[in-house]
Design a protein that fits this description.
2 helices; about 250 residues; 10 strands; mainly beta; 5-stranded mixed sheet
């Protein structure tokens, strides 16, 4: 059966919107570009002990607008503590006036307030945090937590929710084979705590590594990962695929 066309949102000023134009086709079709993100990293990569956690907030506005906000925080914690910290920071964000529209970079969230763990990390020529996908760069091992803010969102199964694609969203740029992203899984409802009912969260390990597990240095690698989920619409469940192009961001923090 042919898929129903997906409405094209109009981004708000200052917000970036990536579409699936130029990706590998319907999500999950065709050969993967390198390793699947749900796989466990090869043994040569060593234990995953990230320097940072990166929080990505994807929301929806009127007329199919799509918003994004992401920032990175210290992440030298064990696996249960990392998700607890991510949820805690998101809960703080949603507790502020404006809820999800309240950005991480606000002074009470960005290292100026009373909580040292809330310090976001500057990249030398970029913002403390970002409201586009253009600054989604990494130079050290980072666990990424992606929160989709919609009360009725349904994440794809872990085998399909984060798919490496062969081309970037411009349809012409060849992306690098995935040798860096592993361990994709859903965050459970029990782990969501105060976020339960606001949306769903996924997590992903970024080793910033080449095929042998060695750290990427230069030149930067470029990746494209389709983020897949469904939300309700007037025509029934609608599949949404968000396609941020990401790299390791050589020389930047994180």
């Amino acid at each position: 059966m042919a898929r129903r066309p997906t409405p094209t949102p109009t981004p708000r000023p200052g917000r970036a919107l990536r579409t699936t134009r130029g990706s590998i086709g319907p999500i999950g079709s065709g050969p993967p570009n390198g390793h699947e993100t749900w796989e466990t990293a090869p043994s040569g990569y060593g234990k995953f002990e990230p320097e940072y956690i990166c929080l990505v907030h994807i929301g929806f506005g009127p007329n199919w607008t799509l918003t994004v906000n992401h920032a990175s925080f210290p992440g030298k914690l064990d696996k249960p503590a990392r998700v607890a910290r991510a949820v805690e920071i998101f809960e703080t964000k949603f507790s502020k006036p404006g809820g999800g529209s309240y950005e991480f970079q606000d002074p009470t969230m960005g290292g100026y307030g009373p909580y040292p763990w809330q310090k976001t990390y500057h990249q030398p020529h970029r913002n403390v945090d970002s409201t586009t996908f253009d600054d989604l760069l990494f130079a050290n091992r980072t666990e990424i937590f992606i929160f989709i803010e919609h009360p009725q969102v349904v994440l794809f199964p872990k085998e399909k929710m984060l798919v490496p694609t062969t081309f970037a969203s411009d349809g012409t740029t060849k992306t690098d084979s995935n040798e860096s992203f592993f361990g994709a899984e859903h965050v459970t409802d029990a782990e969501l705590k105060g976020l339960l009912g606001k949306g769903k969260m996924m997590r992903l390990e970024n080793y910033v590594a080449k095929a042998n597990g060695s750290k990427i240095k230069t030149p930067p690698e470029k990746y494209s990962l389709n983020i897949g989920f469904t939300i309700p619409s007037g025509l029934g469940p609608m599949m949404v695929v968000v396609d941020p192009d990401t790299g390791n961001g050589m020389g930047y923090e994180p």
